[in-house]
Amino acid sequence: MASITITDVSKTYPGAPAPSVTGINLSIRDGEFIVLVGPSGCGKSTLLRMVAGLEDISGGEVRIGDRVVNRLDPADRDIAMVFQNYALYPHMTVRENMAYGLKNRRTPKAEIETRVAEAARMLELGPYLDRKPRALSGGQRQRVAMGRAVVRQPSAFLFDEPLSNLDAKLRVTMRGEIRRLQKRLGTTALYVTHDQLEAMTLADRLVVLNGGRIEQVGAPLDIYHRPASTFVASFIGSPAMNLLDAGLEGARLRLGTSVIELGHLPAARGAVTLGIRAEDLTPAATGLPFRPDFIEELGAQRLVHGHIEGQPVVLALDPAVPVGSEMRLSVAAARLHLFDTTSGRRIATAARPGLAVTETA
Amino acid sequence: MNRIRPFDHLILILGTLFMCVPVLVAVMTSTHSAVDIHMNGLYLTPGDNAVETYQTVLTRQGGFTGQVTGMTMLMNSLILGVGFAVGKIVLSMAAAYALVYFRFRFATFLFWIIFTTLLLPLEVRIMPSYQVMSSLGLLNSYTGLIVPLLASATGTFYFRQFFKSVPDELLEAARIDGAGPWKFLWDVLIPLSKTMMAAIFIIMFVYGWNQYLWPMLMTTEERFFTLMRGIKQILQVWIGSQIPDYNEAFALAVLALLPPVIVVVVFQRWFIKGLTESDK
Ligand SMILES: Nc1ncnc2c1ncn2[C@@H]1O[C@H](COP(=O)(O)OP(=O)(O)O)[C@@H](O)[C@H]1O
Ligand SMILES: [Mg+2]
Fold first, then answer.
1. Which atom of ligand 1 is found nearest the CA of A160?
2. Sheet of A205-210: strands edge to edge?
C-alpha cells in the first residue's frame, strides 16, 4: 500500500515526432482508486506503463511510496499489473500462474500456498486451480489475472483495460468485483479505460486525458457536473452533453432568435459554446423551440433527437411525457455550462439557482 | 457430396501402392538368402532367412579392421542424428532468442545475413569446413562430425518467427513477476516452444541421419562408419565370382529406415497434441 506521485512526466517514443504524453502531474493517495480515461490513443496506456516500468520515462519523476522508481525494474517497483488480454502463462495451471511471481521472489512454499488459497477463495477460483488457462472462460481468465496480482500483495494495482475483452454483461459483474476487491484490500489502484461509464462507476477520482495531456482531474460527479472543457463535457456522460454555438451579450445569452437570461454577468463576452445535459432540458409552455427528429427508446427513459435553432440537440425524457412535432424547452440557469469557443475551456459562472429561462421571439 | 467415386479411390490406392511397395519389397527380400535373390530377383513374399540375416548384419565384425558391426553403425548414425537435432535446436533457439528479445543494433541485418545462408547447401562449404576441421585436428571424431553442421538458418528462422508470435504482454507479465531474461526463456518460452522443437527435431534428425558425403569426408576410421556408408560398403564387393550380399544390404536399408520412422511417429504425436492444445 502506497501513494503514487507523478511529477511533470512526459514520454516521447524513439523516432516519434511529438511526445505521446506531456506535463502529467498527479498525486494519488494511499488506497485511492484512480481511473485514467480518454479516447483511444490519448496516452493512457503509455502513462500506466511508465508507472509499471515497462516503458522508460522520458522526463519527470514517478514515486511509489517514498521511492523514486524511474530507474527501477518492474519487478522491484512492488506493483502488479492486469492486462487486457490477461497475459496468463498458457502452459501453467491457474495455481502455477498465481504462484509464479511469488516463487521468483523466493517466498516460502507454505506462504505461497496460503496466499494462493486465499486469493482463490476471494475470487471463487477454487475449482479451477489445476486447470490450464485455455480451459477457462474469459471471465475466469480475467479473475485468474486478478488473482495473480492479488497474491503478490503489492503497493499498487495497475489495470490496462482489463474488461475490454469481455461481453457487456460480464463487464458489469467484473466491474463490481474489481471495486469490491480493491476496497477490501485497500490497495492503491490505477485503472485505464476508454469506457466513460466504467470510469464513472469505478473511480474515486477520474483523470480525463486528451492528446497526452490531463484535461481534468476530479471525483466522477464533480467532473460530470462541472466539466472543465468541451472535450470533457462531450466525453463524460451518455448521451454526450449538447454543445451549442451561442453569443453572450452581458447577462443575456443569444441562441439564434432565442434569448436566455443568465441572471448574472459571466467573465466573458461574444461567441461562446453553451453546454446543456440532455436530462436538464424539460418540456415547458414557453422556452426554446425544439423540433424532434427521431426517438431512441432505452426503457427507463427515451432519448429524443432534434434541433434547437438549427443546432442538433438530444433530450432525455420520461417515456410518459408525450413528444409533439414542435416542443418548447426550459432549463435552469444553474445547469448551463459556458465554454470558450476557441480554447474550449470552461467559463466561470456564478450561477444562482432558481433562475429560469425566458424566451423572446 | 458423399457419393463414392471409384476413380478417386483408384488414384488414392495407386498412390499408396506406389509409396509402400518398394518398402515392402525391401523388407521381404531381406528375408531371403543372397543366392535366392541373385537367381530369382526381388521377392514380395517372406522367406525363411530373416533371423540369420539380421543377426549377421547387426553383429558380424566386418570391414578391414574387423571392428565394425551393424550395431556400431547404428549407434554412429544415432549419435549423428540426435547430435544434429539437439545441437541445432539449442543453437538456433539461443540465436533466435537474442535476435527477437535483445535490442541490439543491426539485429534485423544480422538475421537477414543468417537467413541468406539458407540458400547455400552444405556441399558449397564442404571443402573449407573440411580444411578447418583438419587444421583443428578434429577429423575422425564425433565433435568434427557434428559441430560444423550445427549452425542452422532454418532452425533460427523458425524459432524467430515463433518467438515473434508470442504476445508481448507475456514478456511484460513475466518481467513484473520478477523473471529475468534467463528465467523467461526457461520458464515460459521453452515450454511454449515444445511443438516447434518437436517439428525441428523431426526435420533435423532425419537430415543428420541421412548424411552421407559429410561423414565420408570427415572420418576415415571404420569405427565411425554410419549405416549409410555400411550399405554402400556391402554392395562394393564384386570380387571374382562372389555374389554381393543383397539380403544384407536390404536388411541394413530396413534398419536404416526404422529410427527415422520411429522418431517421426513419436514426435508427430507430440507435435499434433501440442498444436491442438496450445493457444498462446
Ligand atoms: N511503442 C510505441 N512506439 C511508438 N509510439 C507509440 C508506442 N506505443 C504507443 N505509441 C503512441 O503513443 C500514443 C498513445 O498511445 P497509448 O498510450 O497506447 O494510447 P491509449 O492507451 O490511450 O489508447 C499513440 O499515438 C500511439 O501511437
Ligand atoms: Mg491502451
1. 21
2. A79-82, A156-160, A188-193, A33-37, A205-210, A213-218
Q: CATH number for the B6-277 domain, one of 3.50.50.60, 1.10.3720.10, 1.10.10.1590, 3.30.200.20?
A: 1.10.3720.10
Are B200 and B85 in contact, with CB atoms under 8 Å apart?
A: yes
Domain boundaries, chain B: 6-277
Give the predicted TM-score (pTM) of the model.
0.84
Report which protein residue has its CA nearest ligand 1's atom 24.
Answer: A41
pLDDT tens-place string over residues A48-89: 999 999 999 999 999 999 899 999 999 999 999 999 999 999
> How far apart are alpha carbons B147 and B134 in whole angstroms?
13
Nearest CA distance, B85 vs chain A (angstrom) = 24
Using CB distances shorter than 6 Å, the residues near ligand 1 are A 13, 16, 20, 38, 40-46
ipTM, two decimals: 0.86
Nearest-angstrom CA–CA distance, B255 and B278: 35
pLDDT tens track for A299-341: 999 999 999 989 999 999 999 888 888 899 999 888 899 999 9
State whether A223 and A353 are in the same domain. Answer: no
